[in-house]
């Protein structure tokens, strides 16, 4: 893959530097290592070090195969967040963005099927796998953004002490937490035999497609291309529309597998504007990058937060589209959290007034205008 610029860094991104991360504080830890993106593991802070670094000890990851000593690591502040309050009585439905407890960590995905008896199929974007989970193995996905949970918890839950450590069986070594999706229970696509279309028929020569990459700094981005050759089953040669080869003399051609190619998503109708917290794709540096609307500005402009880089950028309405995922030959659009469940105490009229104020051009930050009304210390 030819070099492509990452999303530009801004100063308004989420900063945990002011969070009360002291010795003994229970945290969840993220990792940028291959195979671990999109996951969070519980641990506690042993002590703070210089240069915004902390020594943490994992709850369930062991330092060696003997399983007698917990793994310790030195991590940066941006890799940590508090343990979210436990949420009870949560009901899940198709399209919900969730965290699923798997291999001793919480992995980000979204519900693609309600299987009955309290079981749900969850699709993981990073591994492009689908696994069935029990209801008690799921939680609603939330981001720790400007020292608040997005979407916010109900007030009575937010007031609970968040320093609760999840108690789960220990594992033998750190290596065993690598996501072994193939050994997990997977769910077959819910497709009738006459609806099945193989990849070679779907992605014929000349088909316009979008291509993703697992390279560092490119997760969550899709680039337009055209299929120029079907090499073999599950392998295609594509030519990018905007990316150039290293010498800059011609368009880049690259061999990709079926896990990194999809059709162009269908156009979706946006009713006037995108909403706060809505998941979108933003066109930037010749590709579509998945993000979340963190502020609605005037003149059809938006601030979009990119989870993969913890950064924000401003976009025009025409540079955004609704986010969709290509799963089992179908386009799936994640559902949005109903505002009514974000707070049972705030009247709908007040919520609507807040959104209208932002759409009329208020420059007040997202967290100060929306989150502070739902989440109070």
From TrEMBL:
Domain called Agenet: residue spans: 19-88, 90-146, 201-269, 272-328
PANTHER family from the UniProt entry: AGENET DOMAIN-CONTAINING PROTEIN, AGENET DOMAIN-CONTAINING PROTEIN-RELATED
Protein name in UniProt: Agenet domain-containing protein
Species: Lupinus luteus (European yellow lupine)
Top-level taxonomy: Eukaryota, Viridiplantae, Streptophyta, Embryophyta, Tracheophyta
